[in-house]
Protein backbone atom coordinates (compact mmCIF):
# COMPACT_ATOMS: atom_id res chain seq x y z
CA UNK A 1 0.00 0.00 0.00
CA UNK A 2 1.30 3.44 -0.85
CA UNK A 3 2.15 5.92 1.84
CA UNK A 4 -0.53 8.21 0.51
CA UNK A 5 -3.17 5.54 0.57
CA UNK A 6 -2.22 4.45 4.07
CA UNK A 7 -2.30 8.04 5.30
CA UNK A 8 1.35 8.00 6.28
CA UNK A 9 3.53 11.07 5.79
CA UNK A 10 6.59 10.66 3.55
CA UNK A 11 9.82 10.19 5.46
CA UNK A 12 11.69 13.44 6.14
CA UNK A 13 15.26 13.99 5.02
CA UNK A 14 17.97 14.38 7.62
CA UNK A 15 20.41 17.31 7.48
CA UNK A 16 23.52 15.18 7.90
CA UNK A 17 22.46 13.02 4.98
CA UNK A 18 21.69 15.96 2.70
CA UNK A 19 24.96 17.65 3.67
CA UNK A 20 26.89 14.74 2.17
CA UNK A 21 25.88 15.80 -1.32
CA UNK A 22 28.51 18.13 -2.74
CA UNK A 23 26.19 19.94 -5.13
CA UNK A 24 24.23 21.58 -2.32
CA UNK A 25 27.47 23.14 -1.04
CA UNK A 26 28.78 24.37 -4.37
CA UNK A 27 26.90 27.61 -5.13
CA UNK A 28 26.62 28.94 -1.52
CA UNK A 29 30.29 28.24 -0.89
CA UNK A 30 31.53 29.94 -4.06
CA UNK A 31 29.30 33.00 -3.65
CA UNK A 32 30.12 33.41 0.07
CA UNK A 33 33.84 33.10 -0.59
CA UNK A 34 33.75 35.62 -3.42
CA UNK A 35 31.76 38.11 -1.34
CA UNK A 36 34.17 37.78 1.62
CA UNK A 37 37.24 38.16 -0.59
CA UNK A 38 35.91 41.08 -2.63
CA UNK A 39 34.58 43.00 0.39
CA UNK A 40 37.91 42.66 2.20
CA UNK A 41 39.91 43.82 -0.81
CA UNK A 42 37.54 46.73 -1.48
CA UNK A 43 37.22 48.06 2.05
CA UNK A 44 40.71 47.47 3.40
CA UNK A 45 42.42 48.41 0.14
CA UNK A 46 41.09 51.94 0.36
CA UNK A 47 42.11 52.82 3.91
CA UNK A 48 45.43 51.20 4.77
CA UNK A 49 47.84 53.79 3.37
CA UNK A 50 46.26 57.25 2.94
CA UNK A 51 49.60 59.06 3.19
CA UNK A 52 51.19 56.81 0.59
CA UNK A 53 48.25 57.22 -1.77
CA UNK A 54 48.03 60.99 -1.37
CA UNK A 55 47.63 62.75 -4.71
CA UNK A 56 47.09 66.48 -5.26
CA UNK A 57 45.34 67.29 -1.96
CA UNK A 58 44.17 70.90 -2.50
CA UNK A 59 45.50 73.32 0.14
CA UNK A 60 45.58 77.09 -0.17
CA UNK A 61 48.80 79.09 0.23
CA UNK A 62 48.07 82.73 0.99
CA UNK A 63 51.02 85.11 0.96
CA UNK A 64 49.94 88.54 2.21
CA UNK A 65 53.44 89.63 3.20
CA UNK A 66 54.04 93.24 2.12
CA UNK A 67 57.69 93.46 3.12
CA UNK A 68 59.96 95.29 2.64
CA UNK A 69 62.63 92.57 2.06
CA UNK A 70 65.37 92.12 4.61
CA UNK A 71 68.63 93.99 3.91
CA UNK A 72 70.57 92.33 1.13
CA UNK A 73 67.59 90.33 -0.12
CA UNK A 74 65.34 90.90 -3.11
CA UNK A 75 62.26 89.00 -1.96
CA UNK A 76 60.12 89.18 1.14
CA UNK A 77 60.30 86.31 3.61
CA UNK A 78 56.69 85.50 2.72
CA UNK A 79 57.75 84.72 -0.85
CA UNK A 80 60.65 82.63 0.43
CA UNK A 81 58.34 80.73 2.78
CA UNK A 82 55.88 80.07 -0.04
CA UNK A 83 58.66 78.58 -2.13
CA UNK A 84 60.09 76.46 0.69
CA UNK A 85 56.64 75.18 1.73
CA UNK A 86 55.96 73.88 -1.76
CA UNK A 87 59.42 72.29 -1.86
CA UNK A 88 58.96 70.65 1.56
CA UNK A 89 56.10 68.37 0.43
CA UNK A 90 56.55 65.27 -1.74
CA UNK A 91 55.98 65.96 -5.45
CA UNK A 92 52.37 65.34 -6.47
CA UNK A 93 51.10 64.83 -2.92
CA UNK A 94 49.70 68.35 -2.43
CA UNK A 95 48.23 70.87 -4.81
CA UNK A 96 49.27 74.20 -3.32
CA UNK A 97 46.86 76.84 -4.56
CA UNK A 98 48.30 80.36 -4.37
CA UNK A 99 45.24 82.44 -3.54
CA UNK A 100 44.34 85.81 -2.11
CA UNK A 101 42.58 85.91 1.25
CA UNK A 102 39.24 86.50 -0.43
CA UNK A 103 39.71 83.59 -2.81
CA UNK A 104 40.80 81.38 0.07
CA UNK A 105 37.68 82.16 2.11
CA UNK A 106 35.49 81.46 -0.91
CA UNK A 107 37.10 78.08 -1.55
CA UNK A 108 36.92 77.14 2.13
CA UNK A 109 33.22 78.02 2.13
CA UNK A 110 32.58 75.93 -0.99
CA UNK A 111 34.55 72.88 0.12
CA UNK A 112 37.15 73.14 -2.62
CA UNK A 113 40.20 73.13 -0.31
CA UNK A 114 40.99 71.07 2.79
CA UNK A 115 42.92 73.82 4.54
CA UNK A 116 45.20 76.81 4.11
CA UNK A 117 48.50 78.32 5.21
CA UNK A 118 48.30 82.07 5.70
CA UNK A 119 51.38 84.32 5.79
CA UNK A 120 50.43 87.68 7.39
CA UNK A 121 51.09 91.07 5.83
CA UNK A 122 53.72 92.05 8.44
CA UNK A 123 55.62 88.76 8.38
CA UNK A 124 58.96 90.06 7.09
CA UNK A 125 58.76 93.11 9.39
CA UNK A 126 58.06 90.98 12.48
CA UNK A 127 60.91 88.59 11.65
CA UNK A 128 63.34 91.49 11.15
CA UNK A 129 62.34 92.91 14.52
CA UNK A 130 63.59 89.75 16.27
CA UNK A 131 67.17 90.90 15.85
CA UNK A 132 66.41 94.28 17.40
CA UNK A 133 64.96 95.56 20.63
CA UNK A 134 61.67 96.39 18.87
CA UNK A 135 60.34 92.79 18.85
CA UNK A 136 57.05 92.49 20.75
CA UNK A 137 55.97 88.99 19.67
CA UNK A 138 57.19 86.05 17.64
CA UNK A 139 56.18 86.04 13.98
CA UNK A 140 53.24 83.75 13.26
CA UNK A 141 51.99 81.60 10.41
CA UNK A 142 48.36 80.50 10.55
CA UNK A 143 47.09 77.07 9.52
CA UNK A 144 43.37 76.96 8.72
CA UNK A 145 41.33 73.76 8.66
CA UNK A 146 38.08 72.86 6.88
CA UNK A 147 36.25 70.29 9.06
CA UNK A 148 33.25 70.27 6.73
CA UNK A 149 35.26 68.03 4.40
CA UNK A 150 35.67 65.40 7.10
CA UNK A 151 37.90 65.09 10.12
CA UNK A 152 40.50 62.90 8.42
CA UNK A 153 40.85 65.09 5.34
CA UNK A 154 41.10 68.23 7.42
CA UNK A 155 43.60 66.53 9.73
CA UNK A 156 45.78 65.40 6.80
CA UNK A 157 45.86 68.93 5.42
CA UNK A 158 46.64 70.36 8.85
CA UNK A 159 49.52 67.94 9.47
CA UNK A 160 51.05 68.59 6.06
CA UNK A 161 50.73 72.34 6.42
CA UNK A 162 52.13 72.42 9.95
CA UNK A 163 55.16 70.34 8.93
CA UNK A 164 55.81 72.60 5.96
CA UNK A 165 55.44 75.73 8.10
CA UNK A 166 57.81 74.36 10.73
CA UNK A 167 60.37 73.54 8.05
CA UNK A 168 60.07 77.09 6.73
CA UNK A 169 60.63 78.41 10.26
CA UNK A 170 63.85 76.40 10.56
CA UNK A 171 65.03 77.70 7.20
CA UNK A 172 64.42 81.29 8.25
CA UNK A 173 66.03 80.56 11.62
CA UNK A 174 69.27 79.49 9.99
CA UNK A 175 69.50 82.84 8.24
CA UNK A 176 68.71 84.80 11.41
CA UNK A 177 71.08 82.74 13.57
CA UNK A 178 73.91 83.21 11.09
CA UNK A 179 73.28 86.96 10.96
CA UNK A 180 73.09 87.14 14.77
CA UNK A 181 76.34 85.22 15.06
CA UNK A 182 78.05 87.72 12.77
CA UNK A 183 76.75 90.51 15.00
CA UNK A 184 78.22 88.80 18.08
CA UNK A 185 74.95 87.64 19.65
CA UNK A 186 75.23 85.17 22.51
CA UNK A 187 74.38 81.48 22.22
CA UNK A 188 70.97 81.84 23.87
CA UNK A 189 69.85 84.47 21.38
CA UNK A 190 71.08 82.36 18.47
CA UNK A 191 69.17 79.36 19.83
CA UNK A 192 65.96 81.35 20.14
CA UNK A 193 66.36 82.61 16.59
CA UNK A 194 66.85 79.05 15.31
CA UNK A 195 63.09 78.40 15.21
CA UNK A 196 61.58 81.88 15.32
CA UNK A 197 58.08 81.37 13.85
CA UNK A 198 54.97 80.36 15.78
CA UNK A 199 52.49 78.17 13.88
CA UNK A 200 48.90 78.54 15.06
CA UNK A 201 45.99 76.37 13.92
CA UNK A 202 42.45 77.70 13.55
CA UNK A 203 39.22 76.55 11.99
CA UNK A 204 38.93 78.21 8.61
CA UNK A 205 35.27 77.34 7.97
CA UNK A 206 33.44 76.45 11.20
CA UNK A 207 30.64 73.88 11.34
CA UNK A 208 28.18 73.15 14.13
CA UNK A 209 29.10 71.37 17.34
CA UNK A 210 26.55 68.64 16.58
CA UNK A 211 28.07 67.72 13.22
CA UNK A 212 30.14 64.74 14.26
CA UNK A 213 33.44 66.52 13.50
CA UNK A 214 32.36 66.70 9.87
CA UNK A 215 31.11 63.10 9.68
CA UNK A 216 27.38 63.75 10.08
CA UNK A 217 27.13 64.38 6.34
CA UNK A 218 28.59 60.95 5.59
CA UNK A 219 26.42 59.07 8.07
CA UNK A 220 23.30 60.94 6.97
CA UNK A 221 24.07 59.97 3.37
CA UNK A 222 24.69 56.39 4.46
CA UNK A 223 21.24 56.34 6.05
CA UNK A 224 19.67 57.53 2.80
CA UNK A 225 21.46 54.84 0.79
CA UNK A 226 20.71 52.08 3.30
CA UNK A 227 17.01 52.94 3.54
CA UNK A 228 16.81 53.02 -0.25
CA UNK A 229 18.67 49.71 -0.54
CA UNK A 230 17.06 47.81 2.33
CA UNK A 231 13.65 49.35 1.73
CA UNK A 232 13.82 48.46 -1.96
CA UNK A 233 14.55 44.83 -1.14
CA UNK A 234 11.80 44.71 1.48
CA UNK A 235 9.32 46.07 -1.07
CA UNK A 236 10.58 43.62 -3.70
CA UNK A 237 10.10 40.62 -1.41
CA UNK A 238 6.82 41.89 0.00
CA UNK A 239 5.25 42.46 -3.41
CA UNK A 240 6.36 39.04 -4.65
CA UNK A 241 4.83 37.41 -1.58
CA UNK A 242 1.66 39.48 -1.87
CA UNK A 243 1.25 38.50 -5.54
CA UNK A 244 1.78 34.82 -4.76
CA UNK A 245 5.14 34.39 -6.50
CA UNK A 246 7.09 33.55 -3.36
CA UNK A 247 6.26 32.01 -0.02
CA UNK A 248 5.86 34.21 3.02
CA UNK A 249 7.51 32.74 6.11
CA UNK A 250 7.62 34.33 9.55
CA UNK A 251 9.13 31.98 12.09
CA UNK A 252 7.20 28.69 11.93
CA UNK A 253 4.26 30.28 10.07
CA UNK A 254 4.09 29.80 6.35
CA UNK A 255 1.61 31.22 3.85
CA UNK A 256 1.31 31.23 0.09
CA UNK A 257 -1.18 33.57 -1.49
CA UNK A 258 -2.95 32.77 -4.75
CA UNK A 259 -0.82 33.79 -7.70
CA UNK A 260 -1.94 37.00 -9.39
CA UNK A 261 -1.49 36.89 -13.17
CA UNK A 262 0.67 39.93 -13.89
CA UNK A 263 3.53 40.68 -16.29
CA UNK A 264 7.09 41.40 -15.22
CA UNK A 265 6.76 44.97 -16.48
CA UNK A 266 3.63 45.68 -14.45
CA UNK A 267 5.22 44.07 -11.40
CA UNK A 268 8.24 46.35 -11.70
CA UNK A 269 5.96 49.37 -12.13
CA UNK A 270 4.09 48.40 -8.96
CA UNK A 271 7.34 48.02 -6.99
CA UNK A 272 8.66 51.37 -8.19
CA UNK A 273 5.40 53.14 -7.33
CA UNK A 274 5.50 51.67 -3.84
CA UNK A 275 9.15 52.68 -3.51
CA UNK A 276 8.25 56.27 -4.39
CA UNK A 277 5.44 56.33 -1.84
CA UNK A 278 7.22 54.62 1.05
CA UNK A 279 10.34 56.77 0.56
CA UNK A 280 8.30 59.80 1.63
CA UNK A 281 7.81 58.18 5.04
CA UNK A 282 11.34 56.85 5.47
CA UNK A 283 12.97 60.15 4.48
CA UNK A 284 10.76 62.07 6.89
CA UNK A 285 11.56 59.66 9.73
CA UNK A 286 15.31 59.96 9.09
CA UNK A 287 15.11 63.73 9.42
CA UNK A 288 12.84 63.59 12.48
CA UNK A 289 15.19 61.18 14.24
CA UNK A 290 18.50 62.80 13.23
CA UNK A 291 17.51 66.46 13.57
CA UNK A 292 14.45 66.53 15.80
CA UNK A 293 15.42 63.85 18.33
CA UNK A 294 19.22 63.66 18.20
CA UNK A 295 19.82 67.35 17.46
CA UNK A 296 22.03 67.09 14.39
CA UNK A 297 23.03 70.54 13.10
CA UNK A 298 21.21 71.19 9.85
CA UNK A 299 19.88 74.14 7.88
CA UNK A 300 17.90 74.55 4.66
CA UNK A 301 15.52 71.86 5.95
CA UNK A 302 13.04 71.87 3.02
CA UNK A 303 15.92 71.55 0.54
CA UNK A 304 17.56 68.86 2.68
CA UNK A 305 14.31 66.85 2.76
CA UNK A 306 13.78 67.15 -0.99
CA UNK A 307 17.36 66.17 -1.82
CA UNK A 308 17.23 63.30 0.69
CA UNK A 309 13.97 61.99 -0.74
CA UNK A 310 15.23 62.08 -4.32
CA UNK A 311 18.53 60.46 -3.28
CA UNK A 312 16.86 57.60 -1.41
CA UNK A 313 14.31 57.16 -4.21
CA UNK A 314 17.05 56.95 -6.85
CA UNK A 315 18.73 54.15 -4.88
CA UNK A 316 15.39 52.36 -4.40
CA UNK A 317 14.59 52.56 -8.11
CA UNK A 318 18.03 51.17 -8.91
CA UNK A 319 17.47 48.26 -6.53
CA UNK A 320 14.12 47.42 -8.14
CA UNK A 321 15.62 47.56 -11.64
CA UNK A 322 18.54 45.29 -10.70
CA UNK A 323 16.27 42.79 -8.94
CA UNK A 324 13.94 42.71 -11.95
CA UNK A 325 16.87 42.09 -14.30
CA UNK A 326 18.89 39.57 -12.25
CA UNK A 327 16.23 37.80 -10.21
CA UNK A 328 17.48 35.84 -7.22
CA UNK A 329 21.03 37.23 -7.26
CA UNK A 330 19.78 40.79 -7.74
CA UNK A 331 20.17 41.59 -4.05
CA UNK A 332 23.87 40.63 -4.15
CA UNK A 333 24.42 42.67 -7.32
CA UNK A 334 22.69 45.74 -5.89
CA UNK A 335 24.63 45.33 -2.65
CA UNK A 336 27.89 45.67 -4.58
CA UNK A 337 26.60 48.59 -6.66
CA UNK A 338 25.16 50.67 -3.81
CA UNK A 339 27.18 49.53 -0.77
CA UNK A 340 30.37 47.56 -1.40
CA UNK A 341 31.76 49.69 -4.22
CA UNK A 342 30.15 52.91 -3.06
CA UNK A 343 31.42 53.23 0.52
CA UNK A 344 35.20 53.17 -0.10
CA UNK A 345 34.84 55.47 -3.11
CA UNK A 346 32.59 58.04 -1.42
CA UNK A 347 35.42 60.32 -0.28
CA UNK A 348 33.36 61.11 2.81
CA UNK A 349 35.64 59.50 5.40
CA UNK A 350 38.99 59.28 3.59
CA UNK A 351 39.50 61.97 0.91
CA UNK A 352 39.55 60.73 -2.65
CA UNK A 353 42.97 62.40 -2.89
CA UNK A 354 44.25 59.81 -0.40
CA UNK A 355 42.92 56.56 -1.91
CA UNK A 356 44.25 54.43 -4.79
CA UNK A 357 43.34 55.40 -8.34
CA UNK A 358 40.79 52.58 -8.68
CA UNK A 359 38.58 54.23 -6.06
CA UNK A 360 38.93 57.64 -7.67
CA UNK A 361 37.67 56.04 -10.88
CA UNK A 362 34.69 54.53 -9.06
CA UNK A 363 33.92 57.93 -7.55
CA UNK A 364 33.12 59.28 -11.01
CA UNK A 365 29.82 57.38 -11.07
CA UNK A 366 29.24 55.52 -7.79
CA UNK A 367 26.16 57.05 -6.06
CA UNK A 368 27.55 57.47 -2.54
CA UNK A 369 30.11 60.07 -3.62
CA UNK A 370 27.56 62.14 -5.53
CA UNK A 371 24.99 62.01 -2.73
CA UNK A 372 27.47 62.77 0.06
CA UNK A 373 28.74 65.82 -1.82
CA UNK A 374 25.18 67.14 -2.08
CA UNK A 375 24.37 66.46 1.56
CA UNK A 376 27.59 68.09 2.78
CA UNK A 377 26.92 71.11 0.59
CA UNK A 378 23.55 71.57 2.29
CA UNK A 379 24.73 70.82 5.84
CA UNK A 380 28.12 72.59 5.89
CA UNK A 381 28.47 74.92 2.92
CA UNK A 382 25.23 76.93 2.90
CA UNK A 383 23.73 74.84 0.09
CA UNK A 384 26.14 76.33 -2.44
CA UNK A 385 25.73 74.89 -5.91
CA UNK A 386 29.50 74.80 -6.50
CA UNK A 387 30.10 72.89 -3.26
CA UNK A 388 28.76 69.69 -4.83
CA UNK A 389 25.00 70.31 -4.76
CA UNK A 390 24.67 70.75 -8.53
CA UNK A 391 26.63 67.57 -9.19
CA UNK A 392 24.45 65.74 -6.68
CA UNK A 393 21.23 66.79 -8.42
CA UNK A 394 22.61 65.93 -11.87
CA UNK A 395 23.75 62.47 -10.80
CA UNK A 396 20.43 61.76 -9.05
CA UNK A 397 18.62 62.58 -12.29
CA UNK A 398 21.00 60.43 -14.36
CA UNK A 399 20.81 57.54 -11.89
CA UNK A 400 17.01 57.59 -11.78
CA UNK A 401 16.76 57.72 -15.57
CA UNK A 402 19.19 54.81 -15.96
CA UNK A 403 17.25 52.75 -13.40
CA UNK A 404 13.97 53.32 -15.24
CA UNK A 405 15.45 52.62 -18.67
CA UNK A 406 17.39 49.53 -17.61
CA UNK A 407 14.62 48.06 -15.49
CA UNK A 408 11.80 48.45 -17.98
CA UNK A 409 13.99 47.49 -20.95
CA UNK A 410 14.82 44.17 -19.27
CA UNK A 411 11.26 43.37 -18.15
CA UNK A 412 9.80 44.26 -21.56
CA UNK A 413 12.40 41.99 -23.17
CA UNK A 414 11.52 39.13 -20.82
CA UNK A 415 7.79 39.61 -21.40
CA UNK A 416 8.12 39.66 -25.20
CA UNK A 417 10.25 36.53 -25.11
CA UNK A 418 7.57 34.80 -23.07
CA UNK A 419 9.88 34.41 -20.08
CA UNK A 420 7.11 34.62 -17.54
CA UNK A 421 7.53 34.26 -13.83
CA UNK A 422 6.06 31.37 -11.80
CA UNK A 423 2.82 30.00 -13.15
CA UNK A 424 -0.25 29.86 -10.99
CA UNK A 425 -0.39 26.97 -8.53
CA UNK A 426 -2.81 24.27 -9.71
CA UNK A 427 -6.01 24.02 -7.77
CA UNK A 428 -6.17 21.06 -5.33
CA UNK A 429 -8.19 18.05 -6.60
CA UNK A 430 -11.83 17.97 -5.60
CA UNK A 431 -12.59 15.73 -2.62
CA UNK A 432 -14.26 12.41 -3.52
CA UNK A 433 -14.46 11.02 -0.04
CA UNK A 434 -11.95 8.25 -0.79
CA UNK A 435 -8.80 7.80 1.31
CA UNK A 436 -6.69 8.76 -1.68
CA UNK A 437 -8.32 12.20 -1.92
CA UNK A 438 -8.57 12.93 1.76
Secondary structure elements and pairings:
Layout: H1 15-18, H2 23-45, E1 57-63, H3 77-87, E2 94-98, H4 101-109, E3 115-119, H5 123-128, E4 140-145, H6 151-182, H7 187-193, E5 198-203, H8 216-242, E6 248-250, E7 253-255, H9 264-293, H10 301-326, H11 330-340, H12 357-362, H13 367-380, H14 389-416
Parallel strand pairs: 1-2, 1-3, 4-5
Antiparallel strand pairs: 3-4, 6-7
Helix pairs in contact: 3-6, 6-7, 8-9, 8-10, 8-11, 8-13, 9-10, 9-14, 10-11, 10-13, 10-14, 13-14
Major beta-sheet overview: 5 strands, mixed
Strand order, sheet with most strands: 2-1-3-4-5
User: What global shape is seen?
Assistant: elongated
Q: Topology as H/E string?
A: HHEHEHEHEHHEHEEHHHHHH
Distance between the termini: 16 Å
Estimated radius of gyration = 32 Å
Helical residue percent? 40-55%
Which regions have little confidence, pLDDT < 50, spanning 5+ residues? 431-438
Number of strands: 7
Structure classification: alpha/beta
Oligomer, anyone? single chain
Average pLDDT reading: 86
Percentage of β-strand residues: 5-15%
Give the number of helices: 14
